[in-house]
Amino acid sequence: MLADDLSGALAGISPGVYSARDFEAISAIVYRGAGIVLAPSKAMLVYSRLAPMVRDTNCGTFANYVEKIEHDATERTRAIEALTTNHTFFYREAHHFEHFAAEVRPELLQRIAAREPVRMWSAACSSGEEVWSLVLTLLGSDRAAARPILGSDTLVLATDLASHVIAKANAASYAASDLEPIPAELRNPWTEVRGATAQISGEARNLVRFKLLNLLGEWPLSRPFDVIFCRNVMIYFDQPTKERLVARLAAQLRPGGFLYIGHSERATGPAERELVQVGPTIYQRRAA
Hints:
Shape: globular
Function: Methylation of the membrane-bound methyl-accepting chemotaxis proteins (MCP) to form gamma-glutamyl methyl ester residues in MCP.
EC number: 2.1.1.80
Order of helices and strands: HHHHHHEHHEHEHEEHEEHEEE
Number of domains: 2
CATH superfamily of the largest domain: Vaccinia Virus protein VP39
InterPro entries: Bact_Chemotaxis_MeTrfase (IPR050903), Chemotaxis_MeTrfase_CheR (IPR026024), CheR_C (IPR022642), CheR_MeTrfase (IPR000780), CheR_N (IPR022641), CheR_N_sf (IPR036804), SAM-dependent_MTases_sf (IPR029063)
CATH topology of the largest domain: Rossmann fold
Radius of gyration: 21 Å
Strand order of the largest sheet: 6-2-1-7-8-10-9
CATH class of the largest domain: Alpha Beta
GO molecular function, one term: protein-glutamate O-methyltransferase activity
Number of strands: 10
């Protein structure tokens, strides 16, 4: 039983304040709202992340807080945001950006030269390290050569369900040392360093639009994408949710478009009919 599984993990916490039943209820709310599966081993993480919110809302106990978030959509969103994992870093899984630079970027530049629109999506963008790595790779090392990109119909959508990480990503300001994984020839032309802080340049920022979006909800997207990055988010989902998400992502790609997923993730289920694996955790939608 869950209560037995958690008895040791919750030692020292009064069951009148936080119990296995509370954890189970919160897990169900998070699963419904974000598709995230919280294993019993996450019981203390839930306690540590939500205890301040229990206090701030004067709920007193987790049971009261569960009751509140069942009926208060705003507070429910805050709770789910507090329980999402936002660990990321610049140029993570470098082989994805190397593949993009060598295999995808040349085609996108041809389309830009032909005055065709280019669309890319960083889904679950977290605090922005992924999308800025992608944008700097697209722009390349030569500012003069990048002018056609900057003046084209090129747009990068970056979405996440957590408002606080979207705000950080949109600010585009980081510790300068955090950007060091990006090759210097890509980093230096498109960042402004002042002391220990690096700011992504205005030209690069103009290519990106940030939006709040829950990947389990509706996607108000008007055009198919040439490239989608959706990495290290499906590891928190159960298998049916993973398969539904990958199928939706595949359908959102134009024929020939590319999908990049996390190092421990796989495209399985119905999407396998639409996608061809072309590299480690890199997939291409079959041509029409």
